[in-house]
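Today's session is about reading a structure prediction critically. Students often jump straight to the picture, but the first step is always the sequence itself: look for stretches that repeat, for charged clusters, for runs of hydrophobic residues. Only then move on to the predicted structure, which in these notes is written as discrete structure tokens rather than atom positions. Here is the chain we will use throughout the hour.
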Amino acid sequence: MLPDGADPVRRAIGERAKAVRVLPAASDATTADRLAGRERGSELAHETEASVRKARLLDEQTPTDAWRVATDGREVADIAREVVGATGWLPRADGCQVR
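Below is the predicted structure for this chain, in token form.
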């Protein structure tokens, strides 16, 4: 969620809501492998260029309080646990509550 994205969320679910920005991130090599696995021909080149552009934009505009989650070589369930942990909705395995 970019900086101006929190207001619509708060309007929708209330002012007391805590927005937690999460930015999934992957290395260039992982991103290239993922794109090559789903795109073919000229679409691969187009999507690769678009991905580089979007990654740069996110890097430049994502607020510093965003939780950056590395996704390289990780299972979806593992990434999900980290994201849910970042929200503070559930107690951590060590019993501490993230706030």
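Discussion point for the tutorial: The chain is about 55% helix and 10% strand.
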